[in-house]
Amino acid sequence: MSEFKVKAGLAQMLKGGVIMDVVNAEQAVIAERAGACAVMALERIPADMRKSGQVCRMSDPKMVREIMAAVSIPVMAKVRIGHTVEAQILQALQIDYIDESEVLTPADKQNHIRKSEFTVPYVCGAKNLGEALRRISEGAAMIRTKGEAGTGDVSEAVKHITQIRAEIAWAKENLRTAEELEAHAKELRVPVELLKDVLSRGKLPVVNFAAGGVATPADAALLMQLGCDGVFVGSGIFKSSNPDKLARAIVQATTHYEDPMKLLEVSTDLGDLMAGVSIDSINKGNGIRLSEVGW
Amino acid sequence: MSRVKSSIASYETKCVTSDANNIAHNGKSRTVGVLALQGAFAEHVEYLEACIAQHGYPVHVMPVRTAAQLERCDALVIPGGESTAMTQIASRMGLHEALARFVQDPRRSVWGTCAGLILLAREAADAAPAAAPQRPAALVEPLKALEVAVRRNAFGRQAQSFVATCDFSAFLGPSETQGFPAVFIRAPVIDHVIDPERVEVLHRLAGADGAPGTGPIVAVRQGRILGTSFHPELADDTRFHDWFLRDFVLGDHK
Fold it and tell me: Residue B166 phi/psi, 5° resolution?
């Protein structure tokens, strides 16, 4: 129990902050200087993975280690869904958090990693309540929306946080008897105790960040207003013409998400933003929706 | 602890809505701000509110994001989070100077936990000198109020985070449960006290040989200023917050 407190506790310290994708030590330093509360070390940002059409794996520990040495903030890195050994390697590297991520090519199409067997904490993506609770019951100490990584289109992240909140509200309103709770937990494939815990809190029992498609300060503030605890920004920052300025602006917007005057100030004159790919333009013929990866 | 576990969102809403009514508080009531730039500020608000509700203290709690909000406070809690992020966010909006004035003001009490302790210190250094040459200096700009030198990430990375059961009864007072679960997350320690005449060491961890009270300094007090390396706001135990309210906010340590 105290071990889970330490895992979930680090996520609590990240709240109200921005976690930025970085591909080298130089970008990590820019992120830290901009006020990022953590960085996600990866070889290619999702926008480039999306274009590549190749198998995407855990990053080379050499670059992850360089990033860990370059900054004093926590460093996260991604492993493929179900790839227990990639996770063992990152734990041996003493990474601060592992993201078992749908952005990489899944290694196991049936099972996610049994995360409670690790001492390193995990964050996982979710697009609805059932997915979030399955990941938590496997041992995830932090949840993020899946969104649609590498697009610059925020609509999927909005959909996922709204969906999770709506499902909690619905269950609070409609599940009255022990039988109804049991049946719903079974439908979600989660322990009934976990469902009860969520309903008594009215929210997930772990920190819940926004991720997937965040490209502007306004996007970050929108997701904070919708109830996210903080924001992951992937491709958006380093695909823009002025990453340093945009990174700072997204950090300020995440703190002052309820202050339109401050949002006006930080949204002004940011240069060219990530052009992006709209969700509706991605169909089975020309690519995959990453949010549909995972189960 | 059911109150502590209830919704953070509702507490925040309550704080914001009741804010306007409390600007002109009478002489006896106190306003405690919780710095809400980044980090675990909602937890502090929640624990303080739980103590206030339980004991009926004439205290109002509010999240602080601007200099104007800070000006309304009699006391301030600086939460855990990332001290680099908090420094950058505060500096960009001119809040850093306001914070420095606030924490130096002898009429105001202050408590920093983890990153908050780093920010309150006279000196703050990284545990390991940064390996990368491109790393700029002074990402953390301490407020120089608490006469100690702090070492960031002193135990190491997240892999070295831990919970230690500590006996704080010497200052928290006796209680049925003696042990307090002190949660250390990528925690700093107080490397040394700069001014031993002013700074009282409240707690040291056990030393490497297990001898109690011979290890790193993790809690100090300098009159109206409290600094802890660990996170009482994660303890599921409100005794530390209750002590801060009684002894620092409502007490006579001005």
Answer: -115, 150
Structure tokens at B40: 């675990």
Tokens standing for residue A191: 């322990």
pLDDT in tens, chain A (295 residues): 579 999 999 999 999 999 999 999 999 999 999 999 999 999 888 778 777 778 899 999 999 999 999 999 999 999 999 999 999 999 999 999 999 999 999 999 999 999 999 999 999 999 999 999 999 999 999 999 999 888 889 999 999 999 999 999 999 999 999 999 999 999 999 999 999 999 999 999 999 999 999 999 999 999 999 999 999 998 889 888 899 999 999 999 999 999 999 999 999 999 888 767 777 777 655 667 777 777 7
Pairing of strands B225-228, B217-222: antiparallel
Q: What is the CA radius of gyration of chain A?
A: 18
The fold adopted by the segment(s) A3-161+205-273 is TIM Barrel (3.20.20)
Of A91, A203, A251, which is closest to B89 when you measure between CB atoms?
A: A251
- Asked if residues A94 and A69 have their Cβ atoms less than 8 Å apart, the reply is no
Hunting for tokens 């904070």 — which residue is that?
A224
Q: Is B163 in Cβ contact with A6 (below 8 Å)?
A: yes
Q: Chain A partners of B181 at a C-beta cutoff of 8 Å?
A: 2, 5
A78 is catalytic: yes
Q: What is the mean pLDDT of chain A?
A: 93
- Domains in chain B, start-ordered, CATH in brackets? 2-154+187-250 (3.40.50.880)
pTM score, whole prediction: 0.91
By CB atoms closer than 10 A (0-12, 13-18, 19+), residue A204 is buried
* B131 touches A: beta carbon within 8 Å: yes
Count of all residues that appear for chain A in the document:
295
Q: How far apart are CA B229 and CA B86, in angstroms?
A: 16
Residue B159: closest C-alpha in chain A: A94
Distance CA A121, CA A141 (A): 6
Contact B203, B166 (CB under 8 A): yes
Residue B207 C-alpha from the chain's centroid:
24
Task: List, as residue ranges, the binding site of B for L-glutamine.
Answer: 81-83, 152, 185-186
Residues of chain B contacting A17 with CB distance shorter than 8 Å: 38-39, 81-82, 85
- Half-sphere exposure of A242 toward its Cβ, with a 13 Å CA cutoff? 12
- The answer to whether B39 contacts chain A (CB < 8 Å) is yes
Check if the interface score ipTM surpasses 0.95. no
CA distance A63 to B118: 29
Is A131 within 8 Å of B171 (Cβ atoms)?
no
pLDDT of A100-156, one tens digit each?
Answer: 999 999 999 999 999 999 999 999 999 999 999 999 999 999 999 999 888 889 999
Q: What is the pLDDT of residues B169-187, one digit of tens each?
A: 999 988 878 799 999 999 9
Q: Are A79 and A58 in contact (CB under 8 A)?
A: yes
Task: Write down the domain spans for chain A.
Answer: 3-161+205-273
